[in-house]
Amino acid sequence: MPIWISRKFLVASTISDRQNGNQIQPVTLIEGGNPDLRPETGQSRTFGFVYSSKLIRDLQFAVTHWSIDEENNIQALSAQTIVNNESLFRAMSPVT
Predict the structure, then answer these.
(1) 8 Å CB contact between 60 and 34
(2) Contact present, 9 and 15 (Cβ < 8 Å)
(3) Which of 12, 57, 64, 79 lies deepest, with the highest CB count within 10 Å?
């Protein structure tokens, strides 16, 4: 079982605030891990074929299909992405 060591980092950054004429605003980000995350899981499938002709020299035709299904996908979003999509993150309470 992995050992969780809680570490949080304060990082100075800037964002472009669309609601205030794209003014550049300084922000302080709190970055760190989440001990409640579950591992990402996934399954991938690939199949394909290659056709080459004996009648037409150097003719080859290849088709490949692939599919990836992921669950519990973990993403790190930039502060600017969160600001640009504010309506998706309104349910989160601000850190004071």
Answers:
(1) no
(2) no
(3) 79
Residue that is written with structure tokens 């394909």 in the block = 48
pTM, two decimal places: 0.50
Query: What are the tokens at 32?
Result: 């760190």
15 and 25 Cβ atoms separated by less than 8 Å: yes
Q: How confident is the model at residue 4 (pLDDT cuts 50, 70, 90)?
A: very low
Is 60 exceeded by the pLDDT of residue 2? no
Q: How confident is the model at residue 12 (pLDDT cuts 50, 70, 90)?
A: confident
Residue 79 buriedness (CB in 10 A; 0-12 / 13-18 / 19+)? middle
